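step 3/5: co-fold with nicotinamide-adenine-dinucleotide
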Amino acid sequence: MPITVAALRETAAGERRVAITPEMAKKMHARGWRVMLERDAGASAGFPDGVYADATFGSAAEVCAQADVLACVLPPQDAVFGQLRERATVVGQLRPYGADARLAAMAARGLSAFSLELLPRTTRAQAMDVLSSQAAVAGYRAMLIAAEAAPKFFPMLTTAAGTIRPSRVLVIGAGVAGLQAIATARRLGAQTEGYDVRPETREQVESLGAKFLQVGVSAAGTGGYARELSAEERAAQQQALAEHLKVFDVVVSTAAVPGRPAPKILTAAMVQGMKPGALIVDLAAESGGNCELTRPGERVEHGGVTIIGPLNLPAGAPLHASEMYARNVFNFLELLVKNDALAPDYDDELVAKSCLTRDGTAQFTG
Ligand code: NAD
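step 4/5: write tokens
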């Protein structure tokens, strides 16, 4: 009996991605797995049912009743866990922090659940790294939102009506999303600078043809991540940045510290010092925002400066975001399946660190 890998239509507000694309369904089929999807699961990502050559379709209840593995982009409604077969496996971005009811619902059904955001950022995990694949989409989309909302062109234009100077763009936080935002601003022709507290990002920013903004605060942490700044460091950063900010037309902020609320980097006073017509796109809005004026999901005007706090940016480019996400999921599932059966090796750190519940027993401690 082949294992059945399944996906439902995502139900989170505004979500358009799908966890299994036609290309990955084909690969799964080639492995001897059966693929089952809820009708229209991929439609909003640009994959109508007809383009899945290697899948069968049914209602959500039918899919749940037959799935050995449910792959999802974001957590489904808790009721879905009760519809799954006992001891089924769930894989996705399951947002476990502060989600006690969700964890209890999964445990009550005896499920094994793996949350891909918890994978360690090691070389071996790169092919399954949903944080990186989706952050790349978010960085690209954030810069397009900025370009669309800005009252200026990004590139320099020489026309009969005069010469337009390029916009000056600053990207705060040069991780995966920030570097993609920088690359996008450069492609659009803006005069682009990047800033991060990790010194090694200087070379990465410069390799994209952007300038590295020196602020004089360095905070490299462990595992390639930044650490949280002390109060003195934060004050020094804000003082130095406030001066620099006066020249920029667009700021895209992407700064994050794993497991912590987003660092507050841009104060109201700093925003007041910016040019009228300037624009901030705060990609950290989902985890509280890098700007203290950001309201998640909203657009705020403050003294002539616009602050946009977009949510779930990867859902705005659902076809490519799904393609990358589904590939991450497939690569992770290959870890779980041995000889055509689900057999997770809990001694493997990728399996152990991403595991929330194992046959219904809680493994996640927050
Ligand atoms: P992230 O989303 O956690 O943070 C985004 C950026 O914000 C980081 O570059 C961080 O240094 C920066 N930041 C944090 N606090 C700041 C502050 N107060 N001021 C300015 N900047 C601040 O990070 P991410 O993009 O997920 O990844 C960060 C790094 O992790 C990557 O650039 C890479 O080096 C490493 N990584 C490694 C792998 C791998 O080897 N498999 C995969 C992904 C990422």
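step 5/5: annotate
The CA atoms of residues 215 and 241 lie 7 Å apart.
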